[in-house]
Amino acid sequence: MNKGLIFTLILFFSIAISAQEFKFEMETINYGKIAKGSNGERTFVFTNIGDGPIIIQKVQTSCDCAVPKKPEKPIMPGEKAEIKVSYDTKKLGGFSKQITIFSNAKKTRKIIKIKGYVTKEISLEKKNSILSDN
User: Fold this and answer.
1) pTM surpassing 0.85?
2) What is the mean pLDDT of each run of 10 residues along the chain (134 residues)?
3) Alpha carbon 123 to chain centroid distance?
4) Which of 15, 22, 74, 70 is nearest to 50 (CA)?
5) Which of 50, 114, 126, 131 is a Cys-bridge partner for 21, taking CB atoms 3.0 to 4.6 Å apart?
6) 26/44 Cα distance (integer angstroms)
7) Counting beta carbons within 10 angstroms of the beta carbon of residue 54, is it exposed (0 to 12), middle (13 to 18) or buried (19 or more)?
């Protein structure tokens, strides 16, 4: 057999064996019911369970209403890292958005999700009544 072909096969198998891999604590974050204008930032925590560093090239969302922030440095094996997502809570109604992570992991694309329902802001402040002495 050709030595070049054998070298290529060995290289391919060694890369497949030493692949990087994510393990997320949660792959979907449910905001539940949140008030309009409230804090829309949530954090996805993950661990590199592979045996090589994970490098996240980019993170994209399915709309401009969710803004992700990715780690800038490589995530070493066994290390935890975060991807923060800020959702614009000024828009009323239900939402379900995908966040796609592009990296050098075994699966080069990883999808995580956020969902929830933005309601009108409820004021807990007591209003004066025309019947009260206040």
Assistant:
1) no
2) 52 53 95 94 96 95 92 95 96 95 94 96 49 48
3) 31
4) 22
5) 50
6) 7
7) buried
